[in-house]
Amino acid sequence: MWLLLALLQAAVLPARPCEAPAEAAVAVRALSARLLGLAMEPGQDADPGIYVGLRLGSEHDLSMEHSYLQRLQDAFQSRYGRSLHAASRQSHGHRHRNTDSMPETGRLALYLLGLRASCPPPDPTTQRFPVTWLKYYLEKDWAGSRHHGHPLTSYYQYSLGVLALCVHRKRVREEVIQRLLVAEQHRRFGHVDGNAVDTEAVAALAFACLKKEQHIRAGLAAELRTAVHRTRARLVEAQSADGLIGNAFSTPLAMQVFIATNTCKTQPAYGRAMAALLHHLDSFTSAATMAQALLALNGRSYLSIASMQCQKELDTLTPIFLEPMPLGPHNMTVRLVVECPVPGCPQQLLYDSLVSAPAGASLLDLLRAAPPQGSKNFTFETQDTAYGPFLTSVQGMAARPKERHYWQLLSGLGTSLQMGVADYRPKDGNTVILRLSKW
Ligand code: B12
């Protein structure tokens, strides 16, 4: 049935030059259907990145996308649907939390990208205040970067902010752009694990969008062009023998750079990356990473949103709901170590114990099964995100995001894990380290 639909679609619509090869159509469709299934799960907050992934697909469930947009708008318009002035006015002696708290640059940017990708386009007045808020957050991030040497959020979110304003054809102050250019020149995008590919790619997408803008002066346009070329060359250099650029999860973002700069056909690295991505599709288990993968698989980038037009869309996608992975009949034993090397910790080692759980269990299952040590129970907290549950606190020690602390997940060999607690499945005899790190 799927194959038939895919063949039909191939016959009706012109193929996009950068999309996955026709023989992968069934696998790509299955991933879209899984994302749709995850988006329909009750109890999950609507996420703008997931909406963008659904909207840039080749097939849709239009009524579901419509109600998802409604949920997004309910959440975002209640926070960003009024002016900054109204929000920052003192009410009952308290300032509005949006003006005081950490900027939400990345999520708001993805929301605006989502609005621009919706069909029919929403009433332009709904975009006015969120655009003003995004400009305000970007300024806060920019001021933070002058003060701390990095944006308050991250260069990833800062880049998304610049990109979203550019896609909406809103001017971005030159100093804000320069900050990103300097960071690119000085290679400041390094994530704690040394994998900067995700951030480099999103920054390059922002540069690629800006360089096309009419109001950009010639000198700046030349700098933006150079930055795009340099990043693209670095991405090609970062490609490993297996075809991945960075790791499986950064590869789709890297591919977007080739898509956005029309080099997917001329650059052999692109085809190799596509083959590697198709090989690793089973690793994409969280909605946020699936949405990112689907953009590349469909031959689209965040920049494609700027030229999206409402046309007849295929309303043919049906969701797939996956059952939880079955656990093995046998038990496994994993050593769980909790390290706390930053100042302010009561001791360096907060926990060290063997944990027993059914074979195939996730790290999250293991944390739930971890036995008490002495008289103290093992405790932890997570926060739901579109990437899955994010570990925020262990043994009563909460990581402070403002100080750029986070609970890092490592293997016994000290290598950083490439998945979160719900997706990573340790093997019998493994060691997992939870370390309060700075990034
Ligand atoms: C910046 C970043 C971080 C920062 C976030 C802090 C900040 N203020 O920005 C820090 C350093 C804390 C971080 C940590 C981790 N990260 Co990270 N991170 C990213 C990056 C580059 C951007 C995320 C982002 O801003 N998204 C946009 C915003 C708008 O969406 P958001 O939902 O609000 O994002 C927030 C959360 O989702 C959370 N977050 C960040 N990373 C992760 C990872 C997981 C598994 C979860 C559940 C949540 C989470 O922080 C974001 C900012 O507040 C992505 C790259 C990508 N391709 O998406 C990798 C990425 C999401 N991270 C990844 C990983 C593996 C991790 C870690 C598990 C690494 C580790 N071994 O410890 C930890 C999470 C551990 C935990 N405590 O649960 C992988 C996830 C792969 C997967 N299979 O899901 C990615 C895709 C990188 C990659 N290419 O491998 N990360």
UniProtKB/TrEMBL annotation:
Disulfide bonds: 166-209
Domain of life: Eukaryota
Compartments where found: Secreted
GO cellular component term, pick one: extracellular space
Signal peptide segment: 1-17
Gene Ontology terms describing biological process: cobalamin transport; cobalt ion transport
Occurrences of domain Transcobalamin-like C-terminal (ranges): 360-437
Keywords: Cobalt, Cobalt transport, Disulfide bond, Ion transport, Metal-binding, Secreted, Signal, Transport
Residue numbers binding cyanocob(III)alamin: 153-157, 198, 247, 292, 407-409, 417, 439
GO terms assigned for molecular function: cobalamin binding; metal ion binding
InterPro entries: Cbl-bd_prot (IPR002157), Cobalamin_Transport (IPR051588), Transcobalamin-like_C (IPR027954)
Amino-acid biosynthesis as UniProt keyword: no
A Pfam family recorded for this sequence: DUF4430
Oligomeric form and interacting partners: Interacts with CD320 (via LDL-receptor class A domains).
Similarity field: Belongs to the eukaryotic cobalamin transport proteins family.
Role description: Primary vitamin B12-binding and transport protein. Delivers cobalamin to cells.
Protein's recorded name: Transcobalamin-2
